[in-house]
């Protein structure tokens, strides 16, 4: 069993830990946290060995009653691979520590592309990470766009992507963020940095993105216009996307009108934390006119990159090829909502 | 002085009344309301003659202590022109009443285009309403797009418009509306009905729109992609738009990051009700690449159609031609924020 260490146990780290624990070929050998807040309690209850991110915080954990296994240095030594889920920018500071220990590491989307050998999306470029020591799983929005572009590019060719990303202001636990009752062009300049980030996965793709931020916490929403090189029907595109395990095509008769009902469906399905790992594309919105495809998709910012982190581990360590890894990940997590009315309820351990 | 009656004294009606009262060539001869709520108090305080929308509500107004001049039938008889600002669909029911009295009438954007001789935007098709008896001022979103498309079409030619309209869930006084903490594709089907509505002003324009609704009340936000027939620079487009009196190009150094600060600027300027009659286009967002123009604009849903209603009155009655009418309206209201740091504070008479 591959030993995976999780450095940083926040929104992404705690989810990656649970996803790794659910896999048949890897184990969580420990998680490292910066402070003994309520997240530490969650880690201990799940049976993960707890490490302190810093030497000088060890006493804070012990004072709070936690049995700490060591510092993150110890965790890095202990691990076959580390998933770095620390806040943006800290990953870059950590890379020399992974190098010193000879431990391969996966970074998250807020780190720069040039920190790693390759940026990664399982559906689009699994092979690029095979054997790599330092890999970056792209952001939630880039993951969502990459999953959509990959099958469209293969089936029809993509001439140009134009996307408006209507982003949630913060996650449910980010109480310090806004806006309240506002719509912000964010960034005001056009195109936004999101397009170039997609180019770390598809270097030759022509893509322009515009970002907005609104007062919600549940999911991002993408309003997409994609010029194709050929002219499929709307029904053909819908079928193509429905075959993708990490795209959930929302059927009309489910009466799902927005991100709230999507998350409620995930909660009803018993999904851990009510997570939605799949892109959620409204079937009714898929429309092709003169080779231009329009659609709406919602992206769960807290969880869509989780299966990608698991697949990146397998790509780097050679545990499986792309198809096999994605299938194993999907089965272990219960990914795939082809028809939520008939599918069984599945959740990862624990 | 032209006698203008206002039938329906809600969000639009009360603003049209004040705008008419501020003009040098027309007077408010009365306003008609459905019920004696706090809006009736506002009408009386402004000195408008108050009419009851229905005969059977006269006693309700009188019981509430209001001196009512009659019913809306009386107001229609009394008026040279009526601005119908009743809720969507009621305008169509009212048209036979205007016909019976021989009174020309202006309807709002929620009525159907085929109810009238022409749909109307002062900047784009003033002439179409000259001498007409029944005219429809298009919706706030269509007004916003029309003001933008008209100068671009004249200067460069427009090949295609693609717009994502991120709409506010309700106005500040619409307490029964949502969503809370959600982003709704609205409508889910693409393209939305907004594009065809713009075609009531520009019949030959190629335009696809996508609608979303978010939990805000202040303004709509448009994320726009416009393919031009020629290739101006970003700076040229910025200058072109800055010359339009009803487009406010938001300068970078004002540090206006969203709709909240825009409305705060309007409040600081002493604008009545904090209204923003102009399209608000972020200058920094204006970007032309390969003949494709991108920009963000915010639209104040409660007020951008107000000057258009005033101009429609002049077009129908022959009081002025388009340029003269728009100039008179703009001066009377204090429209135009070319440089809010230097412009004088102006507000219309209450």
Automatic annotation (TrEMBL), chains A, B:
EC number: 1.2.1.59
PROSITE patterns associated with the record: GAPDH
InterPro entries with a match to the protein in the record: GlycerAld/Erythrose_P_DH, GlycerAld_3-P_DH_AS, GlycerAld_3-P_DH_cat, GlycerAld_3-P_DH_NAD(P)-bd, Glyceraldehyde-3-P_DH_2_arc, NAD(P)-bd_dom_sf
Single GO MF annotation: NAD binding
Compartments in which it is found: Cytoplasm
Binding sites annotated in the UniProt record for NAD(+): 11-12, 168, 301
Binding site for D-glyceraldehyde 3-phosphate: 139-141, 194-195
GO terms classed as biological process: glycolytic process
Substrates-to-products reaction catalysed: D-glyceraldehyde 3-phosphate + phosphate + NAD(+) = (2R)-3-phospho-glyceroyl phosphate + NADH + H(+); D-glyceraldehyde 3-phosphate + phosphate + NADP(+) = (2R)-3-phospho-glyceroyl phosphate + NADPH + H(+)
Record bears the keyword Heme: no
Pathways per UniProt: Carbohydrate degradation; glycolysis; pyruvate from D-glyceraldehyde 3-phosphate: step 1/5
Domain Glyceraldehyde 3-phosphate dehydrogenase NAD(P) binding: 2-140
Residues covered by region (Disordered): 331-350
Record-annotated active site: 140 (nucleophile)
Broad class of the protein's primary localization: cytoplasm
GO cellular component, one term: cytoplasm
Key words, A-Z: Cytoplasm, Glycolysis, NAD, NADP, Oxidoreductase
The UniProt record lists the keyword Metal-binding: no
Similarity-based family: Belongs to the glyceraldehyde-3-phosphate dehydrogenase family.
Subunit structure, as described in the record: Homotetramer.
Protein name from the UniProt record: Glyceraldehyde-3-phosphate dehydrogenase
Species annotation: Halalkalicoccus jeotgali (strain DSM 18796 / CECT 7217 / JCM 14584 / KCTC 4019 / B3)
Highest classification ranks of the organism: Archaea, Methanobacteriati, Methanobacteriota, Stenosarchaea group, Halobacteria
Gene designation: gap
